[in-house]
Amino acid sequence: MRILIVVATKEEVMPLISDFGCSISDFESAVCQLPATNCQLLVTGVGMVATAFALARRLAANKYDLVLNLGIAGSFDRNITIGELVEISQDNFAELGAEDDEEFLPIEKMGFGEAIFYPSTNLSNLYNLFNNFNLKNVSAITVNTVHGNDASIKKVTERLNPQLESMEGAAFFYACKQMDVPCIQIRAVSNYVEKRNRDNWNIGLAIKNLNTFAIEFLKLYA
Of 17, 67, 143, 192, which is most buried with the most CB atoms under 10 A? Predict the structure, then answer.
């Protein structure tokens, strides 16, 4: 199976790079071939614009059996523990729409498109193989500005009730849908969405668990 792993930053997958012996110099072109696998790693840059552009350009010239988005994320849901891995079952461009005084008009209601996107497959039914990882399925939003203000957190929670947020997820799903390629998004929680307090974050644990998953996944499927 030919796999493309998509990440925003190489820092999120440095253990994976080290484990498979991918040369850091390969990142000059933002693409790295993972030795001894049928897998490539694409580093897009942070944010939905960078992700959609880099991924679409890659998919226009290359064929893959699966595209896997990996990254860290913030969680609105306190039932999800810091460091926990989750599988995204729905992602939403949370800011795509218009303000009508106090009301937010989503892009669908305006008649200009759609904001909600889904994976085209999932771990449990991937090639009819058992989901060895047993991850929670959660809903997410994709934003340009991560939430760190009590008022804005309350507002988006009341409107969309998301469990996670990232800056790339929905753009990843969008590009894969346009290019008609199977896709999955896996995130590790690095922090809770609250008034910004980096002392409460554990990016190291999230990256460790994310890469443990990625290495095990590739050993099974790549």
Answer: 67
CB count in 10 Å sphere of residue 141: 27
CA count, 13 A, side-chain hemisphere, 109: 9
The average pLDDT across 98-109 equals 91
Cβ atoms 96, 107 nearer than 8 A: yes
Q: What is the pLDDT of residues 35-84, one digit of tens each?
A: 878 899 999 999 999 999 999 999 999 999 999 999 999 999 999 999 99
Nearest to 55 by CA among 47, 44, 66: 44
Whole-model pTM above 0.85? yes
**Token duo for residue 10:** 């190489």
Contact between residue 176 and residue 90 where contact means Cβ atoms under 8 Å apart: no
